[in-house]
Amino acid sequence: MATLDGVDANAVRTADRRVLVGLAGAVAENARDLLADAELLLGAGRWARAYSLALLAAEEWAKLTQ
Amino acid sequence: MGETYAVITVSFMPAAVRARIPLREFLEGHRLKMMGALMLPLLGAAQQGVAGRVAAMPNLAGVISATAQQADDTNVAKQRGLYADLLANGKLSLPSEVTEGEAAEAVARAREVGASAALLHDQDALAKFADPPAEALDLAAVVFGRYLDMDVADAAAAALADMAGWFQDGEPPHE
After folding, report:
1. Does the reported pTM lie above 0.80?
2. Which among B5, B52, B71, B143 could bridge B34 via Cys, Cβ 3.0 to 4.6 Å?
3. Has residue B30 been placed in a domain?
4. In the A/B pair of chains, how many CB contacts fall below 8 A?
5. Pick from A63, A66, A64, A65: which is nearest to A2 by CA?
6. Domain extent for A44
7. Closest in A35, A48, A55 to B96, CB measured
8. Which residues of chain A are within 8 Å of residue B121 when distances are taken between CB atoms?
9. Residue A29, number of CB atoms within 10 A of its CB
């Protein structure tokens, strides 16, 4: 999965729940940053990238729930 | 992996080999993500009122199917604003074709998703996720296990219905 490329599947399987929750918090913050960037690009008339970053932000939030 | 390199690699493969490349795996991963996105607000970190939230969702199987389709669509759509591509229908897809309206709508939708994920920006809620009750863990095992085994929206909906019954009547979900 594109947004999980940096996450080792075996590490996820064996990680302590608290570590995974910490990951979730970090991912949530990243999603918020992606949305902020999308909003900036939208305001600057960079519609194509704003569009994709907005979708990536939504997907990043969704990633939290795996 | 760079998309260009992948395309070049594929171009060197015999047709029979190309036909067997598991291109669906990526999309199926996204489907699971979106399933999780649906489950999380329902579970609500094992807070009270789960049964009510499930009961308030009409046509749950339909919702799950729509969510899976949305995951497939999103995977294609997010690349639209980044890459020039050749689509399956033979037409070119260009980032410059994205309109202001489409961008604004995508941003608005992302804001909604972010708002629905507010629980995960809540430190108290995260603490509950880190130390959930055993019942919540059992429930998650049943819901996701059934979906992974059967990959059918009806099965996931049935599991959620079991979940609601469990919370309401104390009946354990079926394996």
Report:
1. no
2. B71
3. yes
4. 123
5. A63
6. 8-63
7. A48
8. 25, 28-29, 32
9. 13
| Closest-CA distance of chain A to residue B22, Å | 13
Q: Does B22 touch chain A (CB under 8 A)?
A: no
Cα B79 to Cα B83: distance, rounded to the nearest angstrom: 6
Q: Does this complex have an ipTM over 0.90?
A: no
Q: What is the pLDDT of residues A34-51, one digit of tens each?
A: 999 999 999 999 999 999
Q: Is residue B44 part of a domain?
A: yes
Mean pLDDT for B162-173 is 55
Which chain B residues touch A45 with a CB distance below 8 Å?
A: 100
Tell me, yes or no, whether A2 lies in a domain: no
Q: Do B39 and A65 touch (CB under 8 A)?
A: yes
CA angle (A9, A13, A15) in 5-degree steps: 110
Q: Give me the tens of pLDDT residue by residue for chain A, a chain 66 residues long.
A: 334 445 554 565 566 667 777 777 788 889 999 999 999 999 999 999 999 999 999 888 766 543
